[in-house]
Amino acid sequence: MYMPVAETLASTGWTVGLTGGGLNAGLPTAHAAPSWFALRVKSRFEKVTSASLRGKGYEEFTPLYRRRTRSRGRLNETEFPLFPGYVFCRFASQHRLPIMMTPGVVHVVSAGRTPCPVSEAEIEAIRTVHRSFLEVQPHPFPKTGQRVSIDCGPLRGVHGIVLEQKDNYRLVVSITLLQRSVSVAIERSWIQCV
């Protein structure tokens, strides 16, 4: 009995021809859900890359903080990236060519040739800290410390490591893949030990 090739291949999950904008002849189709990835970008290209990705329709995240700088005897407030040299972007790892063609992108942070996704929980923690309008600044990645959860205030639900500095408490939230962290000033009454 004769069966057309297309029907035979379709019944086994294989495709032939042009699909998804590229040649996939004989390759199984797979549609992985988009994940967050860290993109290494050229120095001082974080904002440009972020705007380009947004223009292409990708969900991107480039957290910024304000710092006072002195220029020509004047105090200015300037925005700097919390993670210099990195932009976060949500995409399916199999379709990273348009990401790589974006101005400023050097590479996707990977282990070998396999892109490493950033934890959804870590991205959400950084987003919550960024939206809180509390004083945020880059912080060295912590080695040890007490893990805590914030149970009230604008950071409710965020997990991190608490540090005490001169009677002030700071919550350190990290992106493990990059070995980078940010810290934010918190009230002692917000802290709940995990």
Task: Describe the protein in words.
There is one protein chain. By secondary structure, this protein is an alpha+beta fold. It folds into 3 domains: 1-30, no CATH class; 31-118, 2-Layer Sandwich (Alpha-Beta Plaits); 133-194, SH3 type barrels (Roll). It has 4 helices and 17 strands. The strands form 5 sheets. Strands 12-16-15-14-13-17 form a 6-stranded antiparallel β-sheet, with helices on one face. Strands 3, 4, 7, 8 and 11 form a 5-stranded antiparallel β-sheet that branches. A two-stranded antiparallel ribbon has the order 1-2.
Name of the CATH homologous superfamily of the largest domain: NusG, N-terminal domain
Q: Span between N and C termini?
A: 65 Å
Helix/sheet category: alpha+beta
Helix content: 10-25%
Number of distinct helices? 4
* Integer average pLDDT: 84
Second CATH tier, the architecture of the largest domain: 2-Layer Sandwich
Task: Characterize the main sheet.
Answer: 6 strands, antiparallel
